[in-house]
Amino acid sequence: MKLPRDMDAAQLIKALAQLGYRAVRQTGSHIRLQCDDPAHAITIPNHRPLRVGTLAAIITDVAEKHEMERDALIRRLLA
């Protein structure tokens, strides 16, 4: 599935909240998210819009940690 080209950090954080991620701190323009089940932490740049490569790397990392297919995760987050 194709990634959105206009997604910003706020939209991604809201979408990842569905999987249990929450913001734990912010340093400059980077926001740290953490999930307890499974234990995982990611850093998202607070940019508008996110670069496609950055978004792809974040999605891939989250999909691997939650043992999901990348396309299934994209569909779940964008639904």
Secondary structure layout plus pairing:
Layout: H1 9-16, E1 22-27, E2 30-36, E3 39-45, H2 52-65, H3 70-78
Antiparallel strand pairs: 1-2, 2-3
If you had to describe this structure to a student in words, what would you say it looks like?
By secondary structure, this protein is of the alpha+beta class. It contains three helices and three strands. It has a three-stranded antiparallel sheet, with helices on one face. The longest helix has 14 residues.
What attributes characterize this protein structure?
single chain, alpha+beta, three-stranded antiparallel sheet, 79 residues, globular
Based on CA inertia axes, which overall geometry fits? globular
Count of helical regions: 3
Beta content = 25-35%
Name the average pLDDT: 95
Give the oligomer, counting copies of the same chain as homo and different chains as hetero: single chain
Using only CA atoms, what is the Rg? 12 Å
Structural class: alpha+beta
Quick structural overview:
The chain has three helices and three strands. With 79 residues, the chain is α+β, with helices and mostly antiparallel strands.
